[in-house]
């Protein structure tokens, strides 16, 4: 069964600190991997999207890495802010390129940034 | 606001009633997706449209569920004879896919939270 597993399940950090969230997947065939940020009660917001040929992609203070060989990805948040408090969800697209309907969602990491 | 909008944001209904949700995608986006999300879970794919054509429906979409996108712009999702298990957040997302093989970024709306009593 295709799965996406994230760790840790939850994380509490102090404002200004860095953190790294992990995502392991067994989805095959693999098309692309996305990281979303979801605030409570809101729809997910796309942070990054990477195909198998991309190793890293940045979006402001967010940097995602992808190792397609080991099927691992990470999301690094630099200089955290209170507004970073949210759930961060790793999503893997199954199938050939363009088949974006079959998205396998992880359960997310709940991040709390405290002052 | 030029993002994806959904209406209503919240809906409380009694079991057995019909409900209809509306989604307005980002203008000129040709793909529109419907997802269902329950507490603590990731969104589950329900169905998607390429322009006005409904190209795929999940097995989760029972006979009580129907979605339309008549003019290739806004979409509606109707649930007939609602059950308590239908209580969830219903998310709509849209994207612009220039070719069949392009990777599209889906932009999500705020969702409609349905509570079935």
How many strand segments of chain A? Answer: 11
Query: What proportion of the residues of chain B form beta strands (DSSP E)?
Result: over 45%
Report the portion of residues of chain A in β strands. Answer: over 45%
Shape of chain B: globular
Tell me the helix content of chain B: under 10%
Identify low-pLDDT runs of chain B.
none
**Average residue pLDDT of chain B:** 90
Main structural class of chain A: mainly beta
Shape of chain A: globular
The helix tally of chain B amounts to 0
Structural class of chain B: mainly beta
Oligomer: heterodimer
Mean pLDDT of chain A: 90
H-E order of chain A: EEEEEEEEEEE
Counted beta strands of chain B: 11
Main β sheet profile of chain B: 7 strands, mixed
Tally of helical segments of chain A: 0
- Please summarize the sheet with the most strands of chain A: 6 strands, mixed
Describe the structure.
Chain A is mainly β. Helix content of chain A is about 0%, strand content about 55%. Chain A contains no helices and eleven strands. Chain B is built from no helices and eleven strands. In chain B, the strands form two sheets. In chain B, strands 2, 4, 5, 6, 9, 10 and 11 form a seven-stranded mixed sheet that branches. Chain B starts with a strand and ends with a strand. At the A-B interface, strand 4, strand 5 and strand 9 of A face strand 5, strand 9 and strand 10 of B.
Considering the chains and any ligands shown, give keywords for the structure:
A: 115 residues, mainly beta, six-stranded mixed beta sheet, five-stranded antiparallel beta sheet, B: 117 residues, seven-stranded mixed beta sheet, four-stranded antiparallel beta sheet, 11 strands, globular
């Amino acid at each position: 069964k295709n799965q996406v597993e994230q760790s840790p399940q939850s994380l509490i950090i102090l404002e200004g600190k860095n953190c790294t969230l992990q995502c392991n997947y067994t989805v095959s065939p693999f098309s692309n991997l996305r990281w979303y940020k979801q605030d409570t009660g809101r729809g997910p917001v796309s942070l990054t999207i990477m195909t198998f040929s991309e190793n890293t992609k940045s979006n402001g203070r967010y940097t995602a890495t992808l190792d397609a060989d080991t099927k691992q990805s990470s999301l690094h948040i630099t200089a955290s802010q209170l507004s970073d408090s949210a759930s961060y969800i790793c999503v893997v697209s199954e199938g050939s390129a363009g088949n974006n309907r079959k998205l396998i969602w992880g359960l997310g990491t709940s991040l709390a940034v405290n002052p | 606001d030029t993002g994806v909008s959904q209406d209503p944001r919240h809906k409380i209904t009694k079991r057995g009633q019909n409900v209809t949700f509306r989604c307005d995608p980002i203008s000129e986006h040709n793909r529109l997706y419907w997802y269902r999300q329950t507490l603590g879970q990731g969104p589950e794919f329900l169905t998607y449209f390429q322009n006005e054509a409904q190209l795929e429906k999940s097995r989760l979409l029972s006979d009580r569920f129907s979605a339309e996108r008549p003019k290739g712009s806004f979409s509606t999702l109707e649930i007939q004879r609602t059950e308590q298990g239908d209580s969830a957040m219903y998310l709509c997302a849209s994207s612009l896919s220039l070719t069949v093989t392009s990777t599209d970024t889906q932009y999500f709306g705020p969702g409609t939270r349905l509570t079935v009593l």
